[in-house]
Amino acid sequence: MQKLRSYLESLAHLDDAEWELAQRLFQEEKLAKGDYFVKSDDFCSKIAFVEKGLFRMYYNVNGVENTTLFFTENQFVTDYFSFLTKTPSIGPIQALEESIIYAITSSDLQKLFEFKNWERIGRIMAERAFSFSVMEANRFLHDDFETRYITFVKENPDFIQRIPQYMIASYLKMTPETLSRIKKRVHKNEKPVYKSIVETPKSKFL
């Protein structure tokens, strides 16, 4: 759990008592490739730190899967809206690789929030989640296809090898054929123009 502690300590200092309680409440889980962290229409009752692995969130419209988010190492995975509102999840979250996570339930998280430092961690994470959603909304509204791809590769260089192209295309709101053409065009240009409406943040939001 050292990665989890290092991540949390980057947000707020935890004394021994605060960390010892967290160790008891976060439970290790292992998921095989294809397993679901949460299924569609289920309640997302937990949030988890990704020790190892990769997940995607998507929704299904008329038999077509639309990818909305990816979660990977040193990030938290959850359906945040379902988790907060205790409503059924609209889109499932699926493991794309064999994964190891440390999960905590909503009720146990409330026990941690009784500590001031954990309240600070919760606030910072909520702010980051909101900032990320606004950034993504603005990018998809203003950035063209080529800029979306360049930004995606710049911020997530390992995803190109770890995620199927059709999922990346779906996340970037384009067809696989369009993505293939853009990749060829971008990689022919030694210095592609980077012009996202929102510059790459200095640190990961999630």
Descriptive report:
The protein is α+β, with helices and mostly antiparallel strands and 206 residues long. The chain has a domain of 113 residues: Jelly Rolls (Sandwich). Helices cover 45% and strands 21% of the residues. It is built from 9 helices and 8 strands. A 4-stranded antiparallel β-sheet has the order 1-8-3-6. It has a 4-stranded antiparallel β-sheet with strand order 2-7-4-5. Strand 4 and strand 5 form a beta hairpin. Helix 6 crosses helix 9 and helix 8 crosses helix 9. The longest helix has 27 residues. The mean pLDDT is 91.
Radius of gyration: 18 Å
CATH architecture heading of the domain at 2-114: Sandwich
Shape: globular
Main sheet makeup: 4 strands, antiparallel
* Protein structure class: alpha+beta
In what order do the strands lie side by side in the largest sheet?
A: 1-8-3-6
What is the end-to-end distance?
A: 18 Å
Number of strands: 8
Roughly how much helix do the residues carry, as a percent range? 40-55%
Q: What integer is the average pLDDT?
A: 91
What's this entry about, in short?
The chain contains 9 helices and 8 strands.
List keywords for this structure.
206 residues; Jelly Rolls; four-stranded antiparallel beta sheet; 21% strand
Topology:
Elements: H1 2-9, H2 16-25, E1 27-31, E2 36-38, E3 46-52, E4 54-61, E5 64-72, E6 76-77, H3 80-85, E7 93-95, E8 99-105, H4 106-112, H5 116-142, H6 145-155, H7 159-162, H8 165-171, H9 176-188
Helix pairs in contact: 6-9, 8-9
